Amino acid sequence: MLAFLVRHSLVGMFACALLGFLLPDLSNGLFPFLPYVLFTLMLLTLAGMPMSRLIQRLCQTGIWLYALLHSAFYMAVFFALCWLLGASKELTLAVLGVGATGSLFATPAIVRALGFDALEAMAMTIATTLLLPLALFIPIHFFPYASGSLDFVTYGIRLLVFIAGPILISYLLHRCLPQEKLQRLLLKISPYTILLVFAFPFGLVGSYRLLWDQNISEALMFLGIAVGLVAFFFVVTFLCYRHLGVDISLTAAITSGNRNVLLTYSIAGMLLGPAFLPLAGAMQVPTYLLPVITRRLAKYLNSR
Predict the structure, then answer these.
(1) Which is it for the CA torsion 122, 126, 131, 135, positive or negative?
(2) Which residues are CB-contacts of 102 (< 8 A; sequence separation ≥ 6)?
(3) Which InterPro entries does this UniProt record tie to the protein (predicted)?
């Protein structure tokens, strides 16, 4: 059964988003436990990467240029679009929060399943995650319509727990345990990490279902915005990296399209306003449909 889930993981993640929508009570029941799942997945993903090679990738200028594209560029574009379209303050803040969000820590596993360079995706993911505190600080601190004020102590603790914590523990594991023993342990555990990945689309989409039950037209608007955001991330990033070849451009594109909205919510919470969580839930459908589309697109581009 586990082998079947691993083999069909890309379709399974999208199916979990649909199941979460159909079973909102179970989805909302799982939601409070998602931060623990997130921490575990981040730790296991980092521990399974060759640290020396990963650090070398992180020292490359191109990785940080990608991170700036991933957050700063898109935040500037979305702020301009929201202003021109007259979007509400709550929706603007939610969209900017998504723009600040780093990539999913499940992205390297998704990229590996597509046959691309998981190490490159991991470096991009870490770089965007490390930029997240600064990118997130801008909208929730400087925009007057952010609900509440920024508690720097709480903000700092959450950053330490959800970002510094997994990185530090992973580093200590690599330093303190023999590499052969660590790799054997990770080899036994790694197949089960796919179950952790399935938890995110299932547990996050429940907030969107609540909006759907209250106001279908508003829910459809949020779904349209979510699809537009994911498509914009993917297409623009793909075009920016197209000259580097199919593998690199699709790796960058899917890393940009996969946004770790749960980490952003875990760090900032209600400071991102009431529209962020429904938008985050709506994004689960296009986010987890994206790997399936990318696989077909890769086959098409490589055949040409």
Answers:
(1) positive
(2) 70, 71, 125, 128, 129, 130, 131, 132, 259, 260, 263, 264
(3) Na+/solute_symporter_sf
Residues 233-257: b if buried by 16+ CB within 10 A, e if exposed: bbebbbebbeeeebbbbbbbbbbbb
**Distance between CA 304 and CA 299 in Å, rounded?**
9
pLDDT level of residue 187 (50, 70, 90 thresholds): confident
Dist. CA 7–CA 48, nearest whole Å: 19
What would the two tokens of residue 206 be? Answer: 């429940």
DSSP 8-state secondary structure symbol assigned to residue 164: I
- Whether 298 and 246 have beta carbons less than 8 Å apart is answered as yes
Locate 26 and state its tokens: 């179970």
* CA 157 – CA 268 distance, rounded (Å): 11
Tally of CB atoms within 10 A around 214: 10
Convert the pLDDT of each residue in 254-281 to its tens digit.
999 999 898 888 888 778 888 999 999 9
pTM: 0.87
H helix or E strand, kind and range, residue 234: helix 216-241
Separation between Cα atoms, residue 300 and residue 231, nearest integer Å:
18
Residue with tokens 């899917």: 254
Let me know: does 11 contact 113? Beta carbons within 8 Å.
no
22-26: Cβ within 8 A, 24+ apart: 24/206, 24/209, 24/210, 24/213, 25/206, 26/202, 26/206
Contact yes or no for 10/289 (Cβ under 8 A): no
